[in-house]
Amino acid sequence: MALGFSNDLPAAATVYDCMDELSGFAGAPPQLLDREAQLFSAADVVFTGGLRLYQAKRDRHPNVHAFPSSIDAAHFARTSEQDPQDQASIPHPRAGFYGVLDERFDHQLIAEAARLKPSIHFVFIGPIVKIDPVALPQAANIHYLGAKSYDELPAYLASWDVALIPFALNDSTFYISPTKTPEYLAAGKPVVSTAIYDVVRGYGENGLVSIANDAASFAAAVEQSLSPRSDAWHKQVADKLQTTSWEKTWNSMWSEVERVLAVFSSVHTAASPVQTALSPATSKPRSSREAAVTRAHAPLRHASYDYLVVGAGFAGSVLAERLATVMDKRVLLIDKRDHVGGNTFDYYDHAGILVHRYGPHIFHTNSADVMKYLSQFNLDTVNRLYNLSLDADGMQAFLAGRVETPALIRTSEDIVVSRVGRDLYAKFFQGYTRKQWGLDPSQLDSSVAGRIPIRFNRDDRYFTDTFQAMPKYGYTRLFERMLDHPNIEQALGIDYREIRKIYPGIKTIFTGPVDEFFGYRFGKLPYRSLAFDHQTFHREQFQSAPVVNYPNDQEYTRVTEFKFLTGQQNARTSVVFEYPKAEGDPYYPIPRPENAALYARYRELAEKVEDVHFVGRLATYRYYNMDQVVAQALATARKIMGDTDLAASNFSVGREKLTRTLAPGGLLAPARASVPSQ
User: Are the C-beta atoms of residues 417 and 452 closer than 8 Å to each other?
Assistant: First the structure.
């Protein structure tokens, strides 16, 4: 909102410090979002006051950094021999909260918790704002002490037995990262919180804060927190607080500002400050960022690395983790995109729903070591189509009477009609394949449709695997944990060719397009691409299943409704429409004889290059399922190690890290869905 009077001020750089999503608060100015859009256009660097806020803003600007709440730990660690006068008469045990009592305060939760635990006294410090004081819960064990100064807070906090974060889960709390969490911990107090995302991610997952989802569990957690904390917990808290000091956060912020200024100084030779001013709301902001670069890259930490890994998808990330963990190699992992996770990258959209940017990816496996990726053909679809009621045996007999047996199976048309007959082929496979691949099934290798198993029973899960689920905290979080190793440095949003100039001759894992690696010497390998249209609707449900395929009439081939894949609760719903394209990012290698012959020429070149391993879909010009990519990466790691026994004995190290990300209790089974795309 300050843009109304600051838009003509000269500035060497513009910083947008986004501490909260104020548009979600009651009484927010209607022009707030428009002003924010202007500020994003003018800003050179953006800071966010929490993790979820970062996830919501990172796609709106090329230079966004998360800085969760930082505190003066010593201030809140002060002990007080004398209880403040207005609190001294309140019996123990005490469970306290300080902060503004507004629409974020879950008064119903506190009323019920106080009723369930009448021996515990609930103390609240802070002004009452934007809510009727009459609505606040009243009981003999609930005490409101009014507003206190910052200097007074440690004395009140020191004599509490448990500290509380009793926030309601609504629009005003969706993006918050409560500063009181580390403040409470600095005082050595056990903390009980509702499931605020940043508290869960930053503290709950690590066991530093107890998380409760309803009044009964909240009350129980408060009572359990009255027991003394272990020395290990206190040490873990101290280690965490080392990362949240004001000084450390300020230094990190200022280093990002200095990066921006350094970029500008390399572009502008004039001695006067760069003029960065906002024009009227309808005009395009004038920013020196337009004349310089779109992203400021952090300098690399080391002068040398043992391995360069190109591509931060499954293939590159698994290999980076293997090299760092098992072989103790120093690894530089780069990707031209500004995120890890490859095509599985997910993020929270503006509605607060976790979505997959590049279409749905469902985790499923029959193995503890690799993921097996299978398709399905749904029995109930056939029963509804032909008004039948067949069991598995009846379905087999029904299809057996309709199949055709080509003399030789060469194409996708051959394999489908040999398994389900020409009528189902025409209704389900032919139109879909033409849209998806831009070719008739008779022009595609049999391997394309061969990936789709025929299902005869009424198992309506997306895949037939024993285990089917989604990572509890999303794929991006899974990759972040996989790559959380001191030997791995990431450089995102950067082209491989830039790094190759800095580290010539470095041992390399290459997961990008093999034809690009060789400068398209023999011409480009053809791919099918996709365009994704993400939309949010103000209703509970958009379609009858999480994933619905459209084989014939529409231009799109598939629509995915994300919250029903991941078990999310939200009054709104977000979907993505997928449109096949001939041009764009490479997704699907096109399996035709002439393309295989072209790839064979590149493969011959690749086999002659020393110290470069080509791994993954793009580097080997072959469509792999997720489990196959992981298996290929692990096999490459064993080859590099040169000792299969060593690789096998150490595989559990990385698998344990992956397992911690997904289980126990870390998997959510997806809802039913229809046939996946080829």
Answer: no
Q: What are phi and psi of 346, to 5 degrees?
A: -130, 160
* CB 291 within 8 Å of CB 320: no
Q: Answer whether residue 264 shows pLDDT above 70.
A: no
How far, in Å, CA of 389 to CA of 372, rounded? 31
Residues pairing with 411 in the sheet: 445
pLDDT at 302: 60
Using only the alpha carbons of the chain, give its radius of gyration. 29
Domain presence at residue 200: yes
Render 582-615 in DSSP notation, one character per residue. Answer: SSSS--EE---HHHHHHHHHHHHHHHH-TTEEE-
CA distance 308 to 305: 7
Nearest partner of 68 among 87, 48, 88, judged by Cα? 48
Which pLDDT tens digit goes with each residue over 182-228? 999 999 999 999 999 899 888 998 899 999 989 999 999 999 999 99
Number of domains, the chain? 4
- pLDDT reading at 271 higher than 80: no
Cα distance between residue 190 and residue 446, in whole Å: 61
Nearby residues of 570 by Cβ (< 8 Å), 6 or more positions away: 351, 352, 353, 563
> pTM for the full model?
0.51
Edge-to-edge order in the sheet of strand 527-537: 547-549, 558-561, 573-581, 527-537, 588-589
Give the CA diameter of the chain. 94
Other beta carbons less than 10 A from residue 432's beta carbon: 21
**How remote is the C-alpha of 502 from its chain's centroid?**
31
Question: 58 in a domain, yes or no?
Answer: yes
In a domain, residue 122? The reply is yes
pLDDT tens readout for residues 142-161: 999 999 999 999 999 999 99
Alpha helices, DSSP H, located in 175-306: 180-186, 197-199, 215-224, 231-241, 246-267
Structural domain range at position 598: 307-361+467-524+591-668
User: What distance lies between CA 405 and its chain's CA centroid?
Assistant: 46
